Amino acid sequence: METVVCSIFKSKKISKVANLYCKTTSSTLVKELIVGIVLFLLIPVAFAQEYPELGVRVETIADNLTIPWSIDFAPDGRIFFSERTGDLRVIQDGILNPEPVKILDVSGFEGGLLGIALDPNFEENHHIYLYYTYNDFFSTYNKLSRFTESDNQLLDEVVLLDKIAGGAIHDGGRIKFGPDGMLYVTTGDAGITDMAQDLNSLGGKILRINSDGTIPDDNPFENSPVYSYGHRNPQGLDWDPVTGKLVISEHGSSAHDEVNVIEPGKNYGWPKVVGDETDPRYSSPILHTGDETWAPSGASFYNSNNIIEWENKYFIATLRGNHLRMLDLDIENNEVISSEALFQGEFGRLRDASVGPDGNLYILTSNQDGRGTPQTNDDRILRIVPMNNLINSFEDCVAAGNPIMESYPRQCRTEDGKHFVEEISKIPDWVKNIFVWYGQDQVSEDELLNAIKYLINEKIIKIED
Q1: Residue pLDDT, tens place only, 199-232
Q2: Hey, how many other C-beta atoms are within 10 angstroms of the C-beta on 422?
Q3: Residue 378 in contact with residue 366, Cβ under 8 Å?
Q4: What is the DSSP string of 98-154?
């Protein structure tokens, strides 16, 4: 039994607790205490913050992640997401699987395991596409590969695009299937600015390929995956529900971040023109940030009526901006009707924004990437839902007739995938912090044990005789 528990703790990446539990000198009581508190803390709870001024509630559906970068949704309800350090993870039945679906050998400072996309025919072929950075001797590249998923494992890598320029910065990396069934890929200039203007290079481009890696016949450049060029470091893309046009978000040079409406074969000017500079040879952005820096990353149109006021708005996760940007765009007339920053400073750096099949907006934080200020439960995946949703708690979920999982504590899951846990008792934040800090070598073993004893004395957890 002790061997099994040791393995569980180690798989949860709480190595210090594993070491404490697995010490042969640790008493039975200490081991029982550790089991009690750790298993309780590992139970997923749908924490939420309400924002009445926006009419929304922000739920945490996964936390204590390592630089999540991209997210996609399977038809069977599973949620797949990448962590930049190389792990592909999955949330199933509302619970984060402790074991990665795949661990890739990745490299790079801003690079790593970046974009993820599930095949439109995932139910039949189980294909998952990943974009990641790797080293080849003294060179750094990015590649796009297709894998086949089986029982939360990835098999049979097929490389579709390789030797995409990579570096410590500007690796692009967002991938997404378009309404035309083609796979679109954003690539950065890898810090070599002239590369964006070179049609023989895949860097600084929007690429478009078939799902098997071949070149579509109607691409603008013959026998080339290049769809548009003159980009610096695009990291977000989605299609306007009204016009069907592709809209991307793109990092500028210290400022002048851009939102561009993409037309096939067009040159978007980097590094020849920035900001308000114009030249008939280059396409101008529909929006740039001037001297302000957002560092825009993942982006998505809100093609949902869950929150009527947000319908068809363009949402961008911003890193340095520390907010979710909401844009109302008139694509046909090339105008920005409104631009608003939501949740300013509430969740720190944001890496991706994506609308799920439930019509809710999912946000990935990026506070563990070396440039943020992590909170104790960072990084997180957040879900933004309307406050008018009547199911807000375990009790509401049960009252609505949803099935109950007879675990301890009991759990209830709605038809649209929301997950609630019965609140049995309240663990103070300072105790949760002690466990996090202990894992980070910031507090002593004695402080950990004192926190556990507090829970015993307050009868928050119980140790059987």
Answers
A1: 999 999 999 999 999 999 999 999 999 999 999 9
A2: 19
A3: no
A4: SS-SEE-----SS-SEEEEEE-TTHHHH-EEEEEEEEEETTEEEEEEEEEEEETTEE
Q: Which residues pair with 89 in a beta bridge?
A: 81
Q: Which fold has domain 49-386?
A: Neuraminidase (2.120.10)
pLDDT tens digit sequence for 298-335? 999 999 999 999 999 999 999 999 999 999 999 999 99
Q: Are 398 and 391 in contact (CB under 8 A)?
A: no
Distance CA 351, CA 331 (A): 24
Contact 92, 82 (CB under 8 A): no
Contact of 61 with 385, CB cutoff 8 Å? no
CB atoms within 10 A of CB 91: 21
Instruction: Please give the Cα distance from 234 to 114 (Å, whole number).
Output: 13
Answer whether 82's CB lies under 8 Å from 102's CB: no
Q: Specify whether the CB–CB gap between 132 and 114 falls below 8 A.
A: yes
- Backbone φ and ψ for 236, nearest 5 degrees, come out as -140, 145
E runs forming strands in 5-67: 47-51, 56-62
Total H helices, total E strands in the chain:
7, 29
- pTM for the full predicted model: 0.79
The residue extents of the domains of the chain are 2-44+430-457, 49-386
